[in-house]
Write a structure and sequence with these properties.
alpha/beta, Maf protein, six-stranded mixed sheet, elongated
Length: about 450
């Protein structure tokens, strides 16, 4: 239910319908025509809706928007947005342009199919004017639909679309206010926004990188990606059917060492894993939750700075809400069935095995089972014995034994205190944990 200072979806749609200066078109593919339906059913729709269309047939869609792109893709969305906007202005600019703030809303969505086998996601776009005959601004969102049924997913798309149009018309004072308005009456359990692209005068002065990271910080996404090429992308675009190497690290220990670790891990990736996938990708991982903290969150500006520093090392960065490895692997496994390889050092392995996992009923055992049930392997790189000893003392992590070879400690030479050592030897024996016997990276 909306709060005392909020208005619900019905009221938002009606208020726009009753505003004689806002007028536009709707083009929706997939998930019904739930956004347009809100404006058509609340009354006074003739005050807002110039046209609504749903090009479900592929040949019809290709005729309208061109062929050669996937139907649920950013490219198809942009073609829809450009076509609808051009047509809207050519038909109505002369008669209404002097007094009207035009908009075009478009979406292309894959909601849950009958057998429940498809990826439930979509692209949503809005082009709008802040003033008549002004310069247009664009919003593009990528969303993951997480409701269990098609009907619920359609409903969520409808609410999100109305929210987006209303926010663009009335709540552009700050990026925080805008995003909060877009997400009203929704939750991360229903919809995940893992990409937002903003352009045009309505968003002048807004920090795009900070807003992208804030999708995680403010609870609109489980994770976002900062690709290595510097261009924002939805995680599904990078991860889909790929073999993935993840190099996690704390915000404090991200150095050039991680770049070398990434290069080594990608080189060590088993050939069969890459061959059975659509290639391989390596991503650094950082979290908004600092190690040793239960609820604290790192500042968005610090996360963005660290992500930009890591991008300079040549690979993309995934920013997660949570710090546990099993949450990272669960997220990545939503987009690929190929094996996920974590490339970590001994210190992170020790942290993972020492974690109390207080948020899980099964504590450590449940955390480990969740991690390795998802086709995951930990490739653990060695560490100088002196550095390991100093780190254990500094973090008050005791009761670990090891032997070294030429001053280097490898994963299979490490022993936690009993009875944990029994479990650790099992993970080594089953090759869930893979000691890397090469030189320390």
């Amino acid at each position: 239910m909306p709060g005392a200072d909020q208005i619900d979806t019905h009221q938002k749609a009606l208020s726009i319908n009753l505003d004689a200066h806002i007028f536009g078109t709707f083009a929706e593919i997939g998930a019904g025509q739930e956004v347009a339906r809100w404006f058509l059913r609340v009354g006074a729709a003739s005050g807002t809706v110039a046209k609504t269309i749903s090009a479900y047939d592929k040949e019809v869609s290709d005729d309208l928007y061109g062929s050669g792109t996937r139907y649920v893709s950013k490219q198809r969305l942009e073609a829809m947005l450009n076509n609808e906007w051009k047509q809207l202005l050519s038909q109505l600019q002369e008669s209404r342009g002097a007094t009207t703030r035009f908009f075009s809303f478009v979406d292309t969505v894959s909601a849950r199919n009958f057998s429940g086998t498809n990826e439930c996601h979509g692209w949503i776009g809005l082009r709008f004017l802040q003033k008549p005959r002004g310069v247009p601004s664009d919003v593009i969102l990528h969303v993951n639909l997480r409701d269990p049924s098609n009907i619920q997913q359609q409903e969520a798309v409808g609410i999100l679309g109305v929210n987006l149009i209303y926010a663009a018309c009335h709540q552009l004072q700050t990026s925080e206010e805008f995003m909060a308005s877009v997400f009203e009456e929704l939750s991360l359990e229903r919809v995940e926004i893992d990409l937002i692209e903003l352009s045009g005068p309505a968003f002048e002065g807004w920090d795009r990188q900070k807003i992208h990271a804030s999708l995680v910080a403010d609870g609109y996404a489980e994770a976002v990606v900062f690709p290595g090429d510097g261009k924002l992308a939805a995680p599904t675009e990078l991860l889909y059917k790929k073999a993935v190497v993840l190099v996690p690290g704390t915000i404090e220990d991200i150095e050039a060492l991680h770049g070398k670790l990434m290069q080594t891990a990608l080189k060590d990736l088993p050939a069969e894993d890459a061959a059975d996938s659509k290639g391989a990708i390596g991503l650094f991982c950082i979290s908004f939750v600092p190690l040793g903290a239960e609820s604290a969150r790192l500042p968005v500006e610090l996360i963005v700075h660290r992500a930009e520093e890591l991008q300079k090392l040549g690979s993309g960065v995934m920013v997660f809400r949570a710090k546990e490895l099993y949450t990272m692997s669960a997220y990545v496994n939503r987009f690929t069935k190929s094996r996920v390889h974590f490339a970590i050092g001994l210190s992170l392995l020790v942290r993972a095995l020492q974690d109390s996992y207080k948020d899980l009923a099964g504590s450590l055992l449940e955390g480990i089972s969740r991690l390795f049930m998802q086709n995951v392997r930990l490739s653990v790189y060695p560490m100088p014995a002196g550095a390991l000893e100093d780190w254990l003392k500094a973090t008050a992590t005791g009761n670990w034994r090891w032997k070294s070879t030429d001053g280097i400690v490898y994963a299979d030479d490490l022993h936690p205190a009993e009875p944990l050592d029994h479990l650790y030897r099992y993970l080594l024996g089953m090759k869930f944990i893979l000691p890397v016997r090469s030189a320390s990276p």
